[in-house]
Design brief:
With 123 residues, the protein is mainly alpha-helical. The protein has one domain. The chain has three helices and no strands. The chain is rod-shaped, with a radius of gyration of 38 Å. The termini are far apart. This is General stress protein CsbD. It comes from Methylobacterium aquaticum.
Length: 123
């Protein structure tokens, strides 16, 4: 609870008391002042409550932003690692293909034959 909630609640209670005393005494002015204090106290309490909720949402938003930043950094670092590994393996494969052209030709021909055989429809 914050100060506005406490003060608003007390002002609302004070207004209820004023309204009740004015009604008992049969006087219109204390009743009107009491009604005004009830309304103003309720409004101040509602303001305090909304301020408390807004502060909570702000803190939750900051926590979520921190979590998003952490996960984003992790994803970025993981992406860099995967990119480096793929680049390394690609270079290794290229060097192997260049140093063994016959094996590469046989492997590509075998893959082309297998793909053609698997993709041709049954007749």
């Amino acid at each position: 609870m914050n100060r506005d909630q406490v003060e608003g609640g007390l002002r609302h209670l004070k207004g209820r008391g004023q309204t009740a005393l004015g009604a008992v005494a049969g006087r219109a002015r204390p009743q009107a002042e009491g009604a005004l204090n009830q309304v103003l106290g309720g409004a101040q309490y509602a303001y305090g409550r909304s301020r408390q909720v807004a502060e909570g949402l702000s803190q939750d938003g900051a926590a979520l932003a921190g979590e998003i930043e952490t996960r984003g950094r992790h994803a970025y670092e993981r992406g860099r690692e995967v990119y480096g590994e793929a680049r390394h393996r690609g270079r290794q494969a290229l060097r192997r293909a260049e140093s063994h052209p016959t094996e590469t030709l046989v492997a590509v021909a075998g893959l082309a034959f297998a793909a053609g055989w698997l993709l041709k429809g049954r007749r």
